[in-house]
Amino acid sequence: MYKVVVIEDEDIIRKGLLFLIDWAKHNCSVVADCANGEEGLEAIQTFCPDIVITDISMPIMDGLEMIRRTYESYDYSAIILSSYSDFEYAQNAIRYGVLRYLLKPLKKAELEEAIDKAVTECEKKRYYTSSSFSMRESAEEFLQENSQSYSGGDALITEIMDFIHENYQKKILMSDLVKKMNYSDTFLNKKFKEAVGTTFMEYVNRYRIQKAVMMLMDQEIPVQEVAWKCGIGEYKYFNTVFKKYLGCSPKEFMAGIKNKPKLFTEQYLN
Fold first, then answer.
1. Cβ distance 52 to 44 under 8 Å?
2. How far apart are alpha carbons 159 and 169 in whole angstroms?
3. CB–CB of 248/256 below 8 Å?
4. Which of left, alpha, beta for 33 (phi over 0: left; psi -120 to 50: alpha)?
5. What are the structural domain ranges in the chain?
6. d(CA 221, CA 200)
7. Given the DSSP bridges, would you call strands 2-7 and 51-55 parallel, antiparallel or unpaired?
């Protein structure tokens, strides 16, 4: 069964969550229920839950702060309960990889749907963890495919490549090259695709994900920081682009390689 921690400062709501839901039906078991974020933090550290269901506004420590302190170190799926429909709360929740943001008063059907979605995420994580070697092979294959430097001899393409490799951590667009080289975007895109076999932005994203994979393999940099360091930025978009090329989310990838010896070498960082 998947371990669940429930954090809610209102006793009636917390008890309702414990007894209203048939947890066994969802292949879950509540291992702790807490009245504030500080208690929730301790429960997460103690039980290493698979799913965390938490209110936002609570005494001592709020739910978002609790998630901020734990979401990188403890791989759980978070469901947030809130009386606030404020965009800023939802935006912060997305930043921390929250799975669902539910507004009070809660509807049982919506909560059960969120729990089922969290369970599905947990099943994926277990699959990727058990398939860590094949995941590593896939990552190595991706790095090898995208580590080849251009050797076609076209000075213009070489200049474009150098521009990407030097500026990938920044926001770069084809319009930047248009200004720099005094060619039309149509001409540059066509010439680049003919020489490299992919569009300019496709190559930029592949290169960024190559860098991201190497940073994640180091197991030393938080996922959120990797998203910015590789030049993609917002975690939600980083998550989408990473899945496109690796077939799993950054957190699923990290779960699959966690505590395993490093496989890749500096050769891919050129």
1. yes
2. 17
3. yes
4. beta
5. 2-130, 132-269
6. 28
7. parallel
Query: Which residue carries 């729990």 as its tokens?
Result: 115
Q: Residue 162 burial (CB < 10 Å; 0-12/13-18/19+)?
A: exposed
Of 146 and 45, the structure prediction assigns the larger pLDDT to 45
Q: How many CA atoms lie within 13 A of 78 on its CB side?
A: 30
* Superfamily, domain 132-269: Homeodomain-like (1.10.10.60)
> What CATH superfamily is the domain 2-130?
Response regulator (3.40.50.2300)
When pLDDT is cut at 50, 70 and 90, the band that residue 34 belongs to is very high
**Integer Cα distance of 81 and 168 in angstroms:** 37
* 3, β-bridge pairs: 29
Q: What distances in angstroms separate CA 56 from CA 6, 39, 90, 102, one per listed residue?
A: 12, 14, 11, 11
Tell me which of 43-47, 110-114, 160-164 is least confident.
Answer: 160-164
Tell me the mean pLDDT in the region 58-70: 91
pTM over 0.90: no
Query: Is there a contact between 37 and 58 (Cβ–Cβ < 8 Å)?
Result: yes
β-strands 2-7, 28-34 pairing: parallel
What interhelical angle do 185-196 and 174-181 show, nearest 10? 110
Q: What are phi and psi of 62, to 5 degrees?
A: -80, 170
Q: What is the model's pLDDT at position 200?
A: 86
Residue 263 confidence (pLDDT) above 60? no
At residue 264 the predicted structure's pLDDT band, cuts being 50, 70 and 90, is very low
- The span from the first CA to the last CA of the chain, in angstroms, equals 44
CA angle 97, 99, 105 (to 5 degrees): 125
Instruction: Say which residue the tokens 């309960």 belong to.
Output: 81
